[in-house]
Amino acid sequence: MTSAYTNTVSSSATSPLRLGIAGLGTVGTGVIRLIREHADLIKNRTGRSLEIVAVSARNRTRNRGVDLSGLTWHDNPVDLAADKQIDVVVELMGGAEGSARDLVEASLKAGKAVVTANKALVARHAQTLAQLSHTHQTPLLFEAAVAGGIPAIKTVREGVAADKATRLGGILNGTSNFILTEMAETGRAFADVLKEAQDKGYAEADPSADIDGWDAAHKLSILTAIAFRPIDFDTLAVSGMRAITTQDIHQARQLGYAIKMLGVAKRLPEDRVEAWVQPCLIPAHSGLAQINGVYNALTIEGPFSGPITISGQGAGEGPTASAVVADLIDLARGHALPLWGRMDELAPIPCEPVEKLPSAFYLRANLNAPADAVIDADKALSEITTLLRNEGIPLAKTLHHTPLGEAPQLIMLTRPIPQEEINRILPILEETTLISGAPLALRIEDLP
Ligand SMILES: NC(=O)c1ccc[n+]([C@@H]2O[C@H](COP(=O)([O-])OP(=O)(O)OC[C@H]3O[C@@H](n4cnc5c(N)ncnc54)[C@H](OP(=O)(O)O)[C@@H]3O)[C@@H](O)[C@H]2O)c1
After folding, report:
1. Which tens digits make up the pLDDT trace of 242-269?
2. Neighbours of 26 (CB within 10 A)
3. Which of 29, 33, 58 for mutating ligand 1's site (highest number of atoms within 8 Å of CB)?
4. Same domain for 156 and 145?
5. Do 210 and 296 share a structural domain?
6. Helix 39-46 vs helix 26-37: crossing angle, to nearest 10
């Protein structure tokens, strides 16, 4: 295999590939451990060794459980870009701005190949990084940025390179999947399970990136750029999972669905792209519905390849280090593809507005239940369904149920309608005296 770049390492080289690693946290120390533990295997597979020569982190004195003696220490990580003894810069600090961005950009400008696990950086500065990589003929690899140990990027960029994918969808965030799985299996409330996820170290003290969908959005944006074309990250529609209750999960299951936090992208006619992150109902028998706990999964479909689903551990020291070092092995072998796996340089386009995209929806509304009131749920359901039909909302199924100790709930499944129709109807429902609080609407996505 040849390289698409001039500034990469010759595939016939046998000298060590010399690395500078910025960031010695979970992933950085994992990479050091893996390179040392599998040194013979890597040499056998590439014909050369990976040699760590320099490192950088904020705190020089912290014991990180790996031997750093003999390595050059840079207080400023950006100095790795100019360090003449380094062939490849490995950026494992994180953050879309600041030192991580400065280091990656400076390294590409200096003609030094870069490997990173930083999804926020790659998603938010996709065009700048693609241009720098192209202009300076220097590879930037980021397998670990999407779904940790799962070779998601390799699958999309290389495995199905011959096909023209039509849709990809994935469970791209392990924390949100852990929370939904625990809620489904134990019946515990969202806030309770979130606290457990934080105690176990799956979720940050500020869990927003995971449960509000931003982490998944970064990964989806990268996958979309490779499978379809680059998109403008700020136009990707992102909704979180805070409003989902165990009752929603239970009702979805009764109706033959699972609720999963999904990132989905589709190829639309005229080179347009649909991409969004939302909690959705998917068929209970689908491959993605079987992915539980902190596991991630990705399904990609094309007219020739058919649907392919891959799953595994989307985060953690070992899986993420495995993906980083696989990129380093590619460089050591002299393999390097263009950033998005294509020769043309496409400017990012806005995603299709999610409001215009049709889908069937799950609708849940809690009935207003003043103390001591006797609620006629049949009558309330009839009134609400009449209201929805009068508003032109086509319904496929309606039912009501009463969770133990709570007010009755109305559950309705619509036929496919644009999301803007659902957005229009939610405030109308909320305004009726029959309904208490905000109704919930979730897309139903028919993934294989
Ligand atoms: N953890 C995962 O499972 C996982 C999975 C996929 C992708 N990633 C990505 O991998 C990257 C690293 O994640 P992580 O979990 O390893 O993070 P982490 O444990 O918080 O480690 C970050 C490291 O970067 C260093 N650092 C941060 N800012 C710095 C600066 N301005 N100058 C020098 N060093 C700096 C820190 O130094 P000190 O130690 O001295 O504070 C620390 O060693 C992120 O982009 C993340 O999104 C992580």
Report:
1. 999 999 999 999 999 999 999 999 999 9
2. 18
3. 58
4. no
5. yes
6. 70
